[in-house]
Write a structure and sequence with these properties.
The chain folds into three domains: 79 residues, no CATH class; 120 residues, tRNA modification GTPase MnmE domain 2 (Four Helix Bundle (Hemerythrin (Met), subunit A), Up-down Bundle), CATH 1.20.120.430; 172 residues, P-loop containing nucleotide triphosphate hydrolases (Rossmann fold), CATH 3.40.50. The protein contains 15 helices and ten strands. Helices cover 44% and strands 14% of the residues. The strands form two sheets. The protein has a six-stranded mixed sheet with strand order 6-7-5-8-9-10, sandwiched between helices. With 429 residues, it is α/β, with parallel strands linked by helices.
Length: 429
């Protein structure tokens, strides 16, 4: 845990502050405004294994009355607010808003890939890309302004063509950042996958095998799993939220019914559903298989991406094991056969065009919204130019695009947006 202290006066109180910390700690003093990210004089105290550390890094149990500080520090030292150091860096021009949001993304990163992406944003890679597009918009607007002194009919067609060409190039740059939004949110929030099937199909065994340890109880008795189990795992850098659902069939058992309802919610939230079959039932059609499931589940599955996973291939001759297909996998949870290929199947859609390709993904919902607004504004400008609207209308649309991109960097955003961004932080940084 990190105890962060913002100093408003002389740093001479450091020794008295350190005496209050029950565990060993290290402190860094920043007397020069140029040596601290916030551009302010401060001291950071880094405390490890404190008995007063806050669970999960949050500060709900921290005392805010400052009575635990020496009297001589009154008015000089206090606990930092959530995200305050980053907020001060933003307000002092050390970071832009996209970089500030990257700090929270880095803290929340669930995999090394997500951490790497957040680090790229924090280093300014996204900000530089946005600034470059805004500069191109500014150049285009300057070119358009030069034509505003002419009547619309007198604007040369050649000039209109040049404006359209430059506008399309800008549109491509913005579209590139929005194209992989589905991939982006998965890296941030995780890819929810549900294991669904009839009782005793080997769902729990497959669940444990994918996790690499025993999490679910496994038994030859049908209906052992009476409640859904959820675990997070890292597959090729993609954070996967894997849920083992209870066997979903008609039942009068009250406890099983509760488990089934929780399983149904997990299936509703899943982006990918694995239909787990006992390989000995491989000749059963999809329709017949689904007909044995709860009717509500049948309806939900019609809108889901499905992969049929034939389990227990170690129990049949090799000649009865079929070929892998886009929506079909063959595995043995018991021996591990086929599991590595299955892992690749689970995340293939999110690796293609994702971080493995070196793409810059925008994982932040606020930034995505502004990007889509910028894209629409450029589209409006091109359409206005194409149908013959006056050049002033085209200019206004491009200005809207420039403003939307500026909001990503924190230009012309109101205090509510700033508060919302830093509301994500739960530690001083």
């Amino acid at each position: 845990d990190v105890v962060e202290l913002q100093l408003h006066g002389s740093p001479k109180v450091l020794q008295q502050v350190l005496e209050l910390l029950v565990s060993k700690c290290s402190a860094s003093q920043y007397p020069s405004e140029s040596t601290k990210a916030t551009s302010e004089k401060s001291i950071d105290c880094h405390e490890s294994q404190s008995t007063n550390s806050v669970p999960d890094g949050c500060r709900s149990n921290v005392r805010h009355d400052n009575t635990h500080f020496p009297k001589c520090t009154k008015g000089q030292i206090r606990l930092a607010e959530p995200g305050e150091f980053t907020k001060r860096a933003l307000l002092n021009g050390k970071l832009d808003l996209a970089q500030a949001e990257a700090v929270a993304d880095l803290i929340d990163a669930k995999t090394m890939a997500a951490s790497s992406l957040a680090s790229r944003h924090l280093s300014g890679e996204l900000s530089d890309r946005i600034s470059m597009i805004r500069e191109q918009l500014a150049d285009l607007l300057t070119s358009i302004q030069a034509n505003l002194n002419f009547p619309e009919d007198d604007v040369p067609d050649v000039q209109k063509q040049l404006i359209a060409q430059q506008g399309k190039l800008i549109l491509d740059l913005v579209t590139e950042l929005t194209a992989n939004s589905r991939h982006a949110f998965v890296y941030r929030d995780g890819l929810p996958i549900a294991l669904v099937g009839l009782p005793n199909a080997g769902k729990s065994s497959l669940f444990n095998a994918l996790l690499g340890h025993d999490r679910a109880i496994v038994s030859t008795r049908a209906g052992t799993t009476r409640d859904s189990l959820e675990e997070m795992l890292d597959i090729r850098g993609v954070p996967v939220i894997l849920t083992d659902t209870a066997g979903i069939t008609s039942t009068e058992d009250e406890i099983e019914q509760l488990g089934i309802q929780r399983s149904i919610r997990a299936i509703e939230q899943a982006l990918l559903v694995l239909l787990v079959w006992d390989v000995k039932e491989k000749d059963k059609s999809n329709e017949r298989f689904l007909s044995e499931l709860d009717q509500e589940v049948q309806q939900i599955l019609t809108s889901k991406t499905l992969i049929r996973v034939f389990n227990k291939i170690d129990t049949v001759p090799a000649g009865q094991v079929g070929d892998w297909a886009w929506d079909q996998a063959w595995v043995s949870a018991k021996t591990g056969q086929g599991l590595e290929q299955l892992r690749d199947y689970l995340v293939r859609d999110y690796l293609d065009g994702g971080l493995e390709q070196g793409n810059l993904l925008v994982t932040n919902a606020r930034q995505q919204q502004d990007l889509h607004q910028a894209k629409q504004a450029v589209l409006d400008a091109l359409q206005a130019l194409d149908v013959g609207f006056d050049i002033d209308t085209v200019s206004l649309d491009l200005q809207r695009a420039q403003e939307a991109l500026g909001r990503i960097l924190g230009l012309s955003v109101d205090e509510d947006v700033i508060d919302q961004v830093f509301g994500r932080f739960c530690i001083g940084k």
